[in-house]
Every structure is written in structure tokens, then in C-alpha cells.
Amino acid sequence: MKAQKKSAPSNERLAEIYRAAAQIILRKGYDATSVNDIANALGMTKAGLYHYINGKKELLFDIMNFGLDELDEEVLTPAGSIEDTAARLRFIIASHARLVTRGQGAITILVDEMTALAPAQSRKITRRKRAYFDSLRDTLNELRAEGKLCDVDVTAAAFSLLGMINWLSRWHRQGGALTEEQAAEQIVKIALHGLLRAETSAPRRGLRVVKS
Amino acid sequence: MKAQKKSAPSNERLAEIYRAAAQIILRKGYDATSVNDIANALGMTKAGLYHYINGKKELLFDIMNFGLDELDEEVLTPAGSIEDTAARLRFIIASHARLVTRGQGAITILVDEMTALAPAQSRKITRRKRAYFDSLRDTLNELRAEGKLCDVDVTAAAFSLLGMINWLSRWHRQGGALTEEQAAEQIVKIALHGLLRAETSAPRRGLRVVKS
DNA sequence: ATAACAACCTACCGGACGGTCGGTAACATG
DNA sequence: CATGTTACCGACCGTCCGGTAGGTTGTTAT
Question: Which of A56, A60, B179, B192 is most enclosed, with most CB atoms within 10 A?
Fold first, then answer.
């Protein structure tokens, strides 16, 4: 009748478990990944793994929180000390992008497997994600107040940024044509300046806007 | 020993089934959706539904192809007859975005549930997706040849576009602050011109470029 | 009338999966 | 050497799910 939590055994091993689990879940999806799969990847049996975890859902929940911790530490906190707003936005995009390409898993899982959580867990994760989203949007609002933002909806802009960044995990491969740094740089460029060349100097053969 | 395919019964009902299944799968995920869930949503039993489908995976495969058909018909084919390259790009982005926000499901499932397919099916879908991606990239290359594209990697640009567009399904809600049209328009704006104000005509109170 | 078929149903099967139980071997502590 | 604790394992359980077998009902074709 003890409601005790089993007490965290060896924080070191636990991190290994999270990392291994994240990688497999990322590749096969949460539902398609059995607890056995994760255990075997760690050279264990299922019962052995259950020594460390309290259930499959709770494992997922922990991994997600781990990912959000990374996001806070490597993106939001450092960004907080950047005064210049445009530079701060640039940093957020680039460092978040790097986290997606470099880290294997935890953050991307955040994005894909929300439905697998229990309602209470889902609410907590959603709240943390919301906090991140809000500070991104705040930066955009600040930019607007300074007159540096284009005429776009800040919410749509913030989501579009996240879309570009999170999508990275689906196409960027290590050892591909673009390094992690280059990929992050490309995202920054596209997000801040768009794809089309600004038609400032010497209108080249008269571009027309075609509607419909 | 008949290898016969059971022959498609009533093309009408089949479309209803695809649509209902797509909605549920979109909400709960493929693995978490049981065949029973889909059957019940259609007012049937599982065995009843199996009169129409040949298996859960094949149903998913069919839905994905249905989504790709939509994409071809409503985006790629009309786009093919637009001469002006920039206008074509604009059209592709906007119409694809509208398809994501308006249609409920088939296209988004394409994106999320690839791992659930059998290898042979997965290859076929990947090939079709690849074809779509290539024509998007072709448009960008054409734009580059015309000197209208910024200095960005075309592959990264194409993927970033898809990221923004596909992400729409995660945040845009019917009846929300932005209509489908407005959301699509925002995506187009951000993708083509970026977030930061171009510092061309009449520097409004002295905008500076901030580096680093 | 009856044959034929589509469109379902109830009942069931085999297997996989999450999770548990009762161990055991290794090692540390006193 | 006794005791406790950590880190596992083999065997097992209940449940749920994809899929099937075989029947029933309603409609159409001849």
C-alpha cells in the first residue's frame, strides 16, 4: 500500500534509456514501438527495463520533458540575454534548428506523439509548449513595435517558423548536402527575408502581380 | 485460390469510408485507431467494414493515394498552366495550403503515418511525394534562372515551404482568428517576402541591420 | 418464384503487447 | 557472515486488436 515512486535509480543510466528510447520512437512511432523494442536496444529484457520506468506512457512523458528542458536551456534562456530584437529572433531560429538536426529525437517526438499521452500529461506538455510559443511570439511583437516586422499576422508567423524548423527533422540527414550549420542558416535566411528577390534596384523587365 | 481483388463495391460508399477513416486517423493516429473505431464511426461493425476494405494497411495506403490525387488535381495540374513563374509559385503555396486547412485529413496523414505502411506501399507513396517535391523545386530553379530567387539553397527552400504548409494542419482551426483564405495568404506572404521589413525606400526612423 | 449477389451481422481465433510476479546474481555494508 | 540493495531475468496474465468464417437480410435479374 505504499504509494512511493520507486525512487530514481542511477540518473546516469536513466539518461541512456531516454536517449535510446527517443531514437527508436522517433523512427518507428510511439505506438509501433513496443517496450520490448526499447529494452532490446538497451540489451535488456522488458522486465529489466521496467526496473527503471513506471510505464510506457510515463516514459514518453519524461522524454518530452527532457526535450523541453533542452529547448529552454539551449534556446530560450540564452536568447533572453540578447538585447537586439532582430538578433534575438535570429538566434532563436538558428539554435532551435540546430537542436532539431543535432539532437536525435526528444524534441521531434514532442511534436508528433502528443495524442499518445494521458490527458493530464498532455496538458502539462501543452502548457510548456505554449510557453515557448508565447516567447517566440513576444519577440515578433517586439519587432513589430520597433517597426521592423513586415505586415504579417504574428501568430501565423510564429507557427510558420515552427513549421519550417520542426520540418527539418524530416528532411535533414547527417552527412547530406547541407551541414547542420548550413541548414540552420538557410532557415534563418528564408524566414527573415523570404524567397523572392526584393525588386528594389532596376525593375528587371517589369514584374507584374498576377492574381487568382 | 482465387487471387481476385474482391472488386470495388460501390465507389460512392468507398469515398465516405475513406473520408471518415481519414478524419479519425488524423485525430488519433493510425496505430491508435482500431478498425472497430472506423467501423463504428460509419455505423457498422468491424466485419461489415471488411466487406469494403482488404486490410488496415491497405486502407491507409488508399487514403494516402486519395490525398495525393487531390494534390495533383487541385495544385499541380492547374499550376502547370501558369506561365509566370512567380505567380505559379504563389499559386502552388496558396492552393496547397488551402487543401491542408479545408480538406480534413487525407493529405496530412500522408505526412505523419509513413512508417505504418508496408515497404512496397511506402516506396510507392514516397515516389509520388518525391514527384510533387520535384516540381516544386523545379519552379524554384526556374525562378533562379530568371534571377528572381534570393540566394538560398533550393532544396532547403522547397522543404521549408512544405514545412510551413504542412504545419498549418497543426494550428489552423476552422472558426479561428484566421479564415482558410487568410491563413493561406499569410503563408504566401511570409514565404515570399520573409518576416523582416526590407530596408529599401525611405528608412523609417533609421532601421539598422544587426549582424551576429 | 428463385437464383444471385451485395451488404451487412455475430462469434470467434491467434497473436502481440503492456505490465506483473517471484526470483537470482552481484556487490556493498556492518 | 548476515543483511540489504541494485540490477536485472524468465514466465506468465489479461486485454485488445486485426482478421476470418459463416450466416442473414434485402434487393435485383431472369
Answer: A60
